């Protein structure tokens, strides 16, 4: 893999987490492990492997600790492993894995929203309550030498409240940043963004956290506008993006069971946009195609 420079694309592959979390059919640990091995080959910088959340809320990811244990001997050198953590209980789960497997997980990712209704529906807590829960999580992560990502969902629109103002997003982002989050990941949860609205939210957040250097963009491609959002973000100096192979992760709030909405931005769409903007990347296209084919087979149950 060519070296990853500061101006090249940084990709967090979220196929195993966001890509699978809403899949109604249980996917076995063996299949997730096989997908993780395929993802190791594509040249991304980070794998978001799973979530330490309540299995009652997200049954598909109830096997997080087991999957990490299976991957312990297979993690590629230099790759970052991360996992979602909503509270101290989740952090304890992450730390138990790290104790058993020599610091296997590099990053804990806390998550909240810019919309009160979404925060309630997603985490059974207000935005203020989620931030309060994160204080000891971030403190513990720092004490254990972990990196911390802070996600803000619904940065452009909420499925329940409609349009969300960039000012509201920036206020939450600033709190996460001042708490000690190393990066702020802006989630367009339902794929509502376009170039103009993503630019507005990036500018509002950058003004409050000292520039675009710590901003990550997490796009869903519900309406086919994720590519234009990538180009707009790159023009603002953002180089870090999340994506899934084959665009896994249809949003449960968009589409119908018969006609599911497109999911997270497909890594191929991300690359098309970044390469057209002249940004270098470390992706091996043939390996990406192999992982995408496997991912599609797994979610179709074929
Ligand atoms: P709660 O029910 O309010 O929590 O859930 P609680 O503290 O009352 O606990 C209830 C039960 O859950 C208890 O078990 C706890 O022990 C257990 P019981 O006594 O009933 O047997 N529990 C846990 N178990 C495992 N791990 C934990 C944990 N915490 C409590 N960490 C909670 C609150 C936050 C836990 C719950 O709402 C939850 O797990 N939510 C998960 C939400 C989630 O994962 N959403 C998807 C990820 S976010 C996302 O997709 C957006 C993103 O992609 C960006 C974008 O697109 O915008 C990141
Ligand atoms: Mg998402």
Can you tell me about this structure?
By secondary structure, the protein is α/β, with parallel strands linked by helices. It has one domain: TIM Barrel. The chain has eleven helices and ten strands. It has helices at 15-19, 29-40, 64-71, 88-100, 116-123, 127-143, 166-179, 195-209, 226-235, 267-276, 285-300, and strands at 10-13, 46-51, 80-84, 107-113, 147-153, 157-158, 162-163, 183-188, 215-219, 240-243. An eight-stranded parallel beta barrel has the order 1-2-3-4-5-8-9-10, surrounded by eight helices. The chain has a two-stranded antiparallel sheet with strand order 6-7. Strand 9, helix 9 and strand 10 form a beta-alpha-beta unit. Helix 2 runs antiparallel to helix 11 (285-300). The longest helix has 17 residues, at 127-143. It starts with 9 loop residues before the first strand and ends with a helix. The mean pLDDT is 95. The chain binds 3-hydroxy-3-methylglutaryl-coenzyme A (HMG) and magnesium ion (MG). Magnesium ion binds next to loops.
């Amino acid at each position: 893999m060519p070296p990853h420079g500061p101006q090249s694309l940084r990709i967090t592959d979220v196929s195993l987490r966001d890509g699978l979390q809403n899949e109604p059919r249980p996917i076995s640990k063996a299949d997730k492990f096989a997908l993780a091995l395929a993802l190791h080959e594509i040249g991304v910088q980070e794998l978001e492997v799973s979530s330490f959340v309540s299995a009652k809320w997200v049954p598909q990811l109830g096997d997080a600790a087991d999957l990490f244990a299976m991957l312990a001997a297979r993690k590629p050198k230099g790759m970052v492993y991360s996992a979602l953590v909503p509270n101290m209980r989740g952090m304890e789960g992450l730390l138990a894995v790290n104790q058993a497997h020599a610091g296997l997980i590099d990053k804990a990712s806390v998550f909240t929203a810019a919309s009160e209704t979404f925060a309630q529906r997603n985490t059974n807590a207000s935005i203020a309550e989620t931030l309060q829960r994160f204080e000891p999580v971030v403190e513990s992560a720092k004490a254990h030498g972990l990196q911390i990502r802070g996600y803000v969902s619904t940065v452009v629109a909420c499925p329940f409240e409609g349009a969300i103002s960039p000012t509201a997003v920036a206020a939450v982002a600033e709190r996460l940043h001042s708490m000690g989050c190393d990066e702020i990941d802006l989630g367009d949860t339902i794929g509502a963004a376009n170039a103009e609205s993503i630019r507005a939210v990036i500018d509002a957040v950058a003004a409050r956290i000292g520039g675009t250097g710590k901003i990550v963009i997490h796009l869903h491609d519900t309406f086919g506008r994720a590519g234009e959002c990538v180009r707009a973000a790159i023009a603002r100096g953002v180089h870090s993006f999340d994506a899934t192979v084959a665009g896994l992760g249809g949003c449960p709030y968009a589409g119908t069971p018969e006609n599911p909405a497109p999911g997270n931005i497909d890594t191929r769409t991300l690359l098309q946009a970044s390469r057209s903007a002249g940004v270098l990347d470390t992706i091996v296209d043939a390996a990406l195609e192999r992982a995408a084919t496997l991912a599609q087979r797994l979610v179709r149950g074929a």
